[in-house]
Design brief:
mainly alpha; 5-stranded mixed sheet; Rossmann fold; 2 domains; about 450 residues
Length: about 450
């Protein structure tokens, strides 16, 4: 489910942007090009997925355009229904990730400011409806707001180390090459062209201003350790990556506008469809397919570690799935990713999730016995009773662990010494044993005689 969620993040943001731009009256060519170019930016969502994954934060950022659509609908139709929708939408952003709600508020205020300055008045009906919606957001978001304030007051803030001088950070930003994720030069050229051509993009002025706020906060977080910089960026944990993600979302329409401006120059008058298509085709070629290889590799690297199932573990689960009938239980280590056998192959593991020390006491006596002393199955009647009670025939040991400092569960250490276990599958770091209980012995295997075998998991 989380992988499906992650895969949809880009589409969620790009779709919201396209609908918002269409609502603002942006030229159709810019509206259609924005989702395409949104797929190029490494900073959003790829870097945030690779680095965290910061899924609640990325989801909140992706939903900012949708929230702005609600605000736009409210000022056009300041009725009770839209007031409630904006209140619920704002509260949802706060509950999902308070830092994204702050950026949504910044963009919304800038959008309203441009609207009212252009009209040279502030309509009372719009102001009243917005005030009611804001009050509803605060009321519904009170728990999230209070929790955020308490977290900050409790000394839970983070101050990441700077990533270079101001000019170094700005230079990497201009080339879209933050911390090894670029540079994305041709995309940066489109953004620059869009900024230069902002005079012809009046509907995007407020959006460009919001993007500038995100860019400024990014530079402060990445290049300064001053108290003011820390205070301004504290809602985003002084994290340059999170701020650059919002800036990338803001840059996508600017890059699309830049492509439109280049198409106009190519056509020497209005941007004809052929000129727009030619510019986009050039972008695809020059970026090596919209920077897909680099962005794909960036995300893939986060899943190519011992913290995730590798191909050997997946293959071993498939092998085991063909031999274990429905309902039969397989002994496993809760720390090595083996609980995923339930999702992949429908195999029922003894431990379907990790068992940290805080929840160890909640295990029943049978599972505690297996976790602590399974390797004593040759000499301990209680272990044999637990095996027979659950009907266990196989033992699965994966490679690597979900948490970096984890280790093999004590009860599963030294299994190769047991005469009651036959190694029936071994590939890479995966081992599968079939249980063939031998007569009880007075001599436990070495791992079982180790006093540390009685220690609960850490």
């Amino acid at each position: 489910m989380l992988n499906s969620h992650t895969a949809l993040l880009g589409a969620l943001a790009a779709g919201g942007l396209a609908v918002l731009l269409r609502q603002l009256g942006v030229p159709p060519a810019v509206t259609a090009t924005t989702p395409v170019l949104m797929a190029c930016f490494a900073a959003f969502p790829y870097d945030l997925v690779w680095r965290g994954p910061l899924l609640p934060y990325v989801t909140g950022v992706a939903l900012v355009p949708a929230f702005l659509l609600l605000v736009s609908a409210l000022v056009r139709d300041p009725g009770t229904g839209t007031v409630v929708l904006v209140g619920l939408g704002g509260a949802a952003l706060f509950g999902l990730q308070p830092a994204t709600a702050l950026f949504a508020a910044v963009f919304a205020l800038l959008m309203l400011a441009q609207r009212w300055l252009g009209a040279r008045r502030v309509p009372w009906g719009e102001l009243r409806a917005l005030s009611l919606a804001g009050a509803l957001v605060l009321l519904l978001s009170a728990p999230a707001i209070v929790g955020s304030v308490r977290a900050g007051a409790g000394g839970g803030s983070v101050d990441w180390a700077t990533e270079g001088t101001g000019w170094q950070v700005v230079g990497r930003l201009l080339l879209l090459g933050h911390e090894g994720s670029g540079p994305q030069v041709w995309l940066a050229v489109l953004v620059a062209a869009g900024v230069v051509g902002l005079r012809t993009a009046r509907p995007l002025w407020w959006w460009a201003a919001g993007t500038a706020v995100a860019v400024l906060l990014f530079v402060l977080a990445a290049a300064s350790d001053e108290a003011l910089a820390a205070a301004l960026t504290r809602p985003w944990w002084n994290d340059a990556w999170r701020l650059l993600g919002v800036a990338a979302l803001g840059m996508a329409p600017l890059a699309a506008h830049g492509a439109w401006e280049l198409a106009r120059l190519l056509a020497r008058r209005t941007a004809r469809p052929a000129a727009v298509a030619a510019v986009l085709a050039g972008v695809v070629v020059l970026t090596g397919g919209l920077y897909t290889p680099g962005n794909t590799g960036r995300v893939a690297s986060a899943y190519q570690s011992d913290r995730h199932l590798d191909a050997d573990e997946v293959a071993a689960m498939a092998w085991l799935g063909r031999r274990v009938p429905p309902g039969e239980v397989v002994m496993n280590d809760p720390r090595d990713g083996s609980p995923f056998m339930a999702a992949l192959e429908g195999i029922r593991p003894v431990f379907g999730h990790q068992v940290p020390k805080a929840t160890y006491a909640t295990l029943g006596p049978t599972r505690r016995t297996l976790l602590d002393r399974f390797h004593c199955l040759d000499s301990d009647p209680d272990v044999r009773s637990a095996i027979e009670q659950l009907g266990i025939r196989y033992v699965f040991l994966g490679s690597g662990y979900v948490r970096p400092h984890a280790h093999r569960a004590q009860g599963l250490v030294g299994l190769s010494d047991s005469p009651s276990l036959d190694l029936v599958y071994a590939h890479g770091g995966v081992r599968i044993y079939r249980i063939d209980l031998q007569p009880l012995s007075d001599q436990p295997i070495p791992a079982c005689s180790d006093p540390a075998a009685e220690d609960p998991p850490s």
